[in-house]
Amino acid sequence: MVLSLLAFLCSAVGITILYRAWQRKIRNYHGVALCGAWFLVALSVYLWSIAHGPEFGVCYAFITIALQSWALIALTRDKRVKENRTPQLPQQPLALTNALQALPKQALVLITAVPLAGASAMLFTVVTTSLLPWQSVNIVALGIYTMPVIWGLAAYWACADSKLWRPALTFAIISAVAALIIYR
Predict the structure, then answer these.
(1) pLDDT tens digits, one per residue of 12-60
(2) Residue 92 CB burial class (10 angstroms; 0-12, 13-18, ≥19)
(3) How far does Cα 73 stand from its chain's mean position?
(4) Given phi > 0 = left and psi -120 to 50 = alpha, else beta, which region is 86?
(5) Would you say 15 and 41 are in contact if contact means Cβ atoms under 8 Å apart?
(6) Phi and psi dihedrals of 100, rounded to 5?
(7) How far apart are the first and last CA of the chain?
């Protein structure tokens, strides 16, 4: 318990010195202050490890250092003056007619970005990874990691393109060709 309290205090003092040095509020002995602050932070990790073992000690140290840093930043933040803000415009009523008119186009974007892009990404990943001369475990691992990335890029393209037919047609062609290769 004493070591935990000492570790907590070491990290609090170290983080405070680092924060003040970062703000250039420590003018004399700036390098010594930084070295001392990092030493206190490292000492707190060591003390946490002695008190609770290395597995829990390192976790407790990192959690404590992060929470102390956030608390220090929250306590020392500048208060913003609200009088300097620009005046707010009066709120306008929500026009649902424009939203209802855009609903079919947004539904097509959703269909293109989620199931169509997902199917084409999945089929494309299966085809490309099956061509690799690796063990099946490595192929499956590569497919698991690359398929969501390809799907995300495809969905981004579907949402960003002004002409929805281009990504939709591309995804349909990729899906058809990949399905022919897989299920021939």
Answers:
(1) 999 999 988 888 777 777 788 889 999 999 999 999 999 999 888 999 9
(2) exposed
(3) 21
(4) beta
(5) yes
(6) -70, -30
(7) 68
**CA–CA gap between residue 98 and residue 176 (Å, rounded):** 36
Q: Is the dihedral of CA 103, 107, 108, 112 positive or negative?
A: positive
Phi, psi of 40 (to 5 degrees): -65, -40
3-state secondary structure the chain: CHHHHHHHHHHHHHHHHHHHHHCCCCCCCHHHHHHHHHHHHHHHHHHHHHHHHHHHHHHHHHHHHHHHHHHHHHHHCCCCCHHHCCCCCCCCCCCHHHHHHHHHHHHHHHHHHHHHHHHHHHHHHHHHHHCCCCCHHHHHHHHHHHHHHHHHHHHHHHHHCCCCHHHHHHHHHHHHHHHHHHCC
For 78-122, the pLDDT digits (tens) are 766 555 566 677 777 766 767 778 889 999 999 999 999 999 999
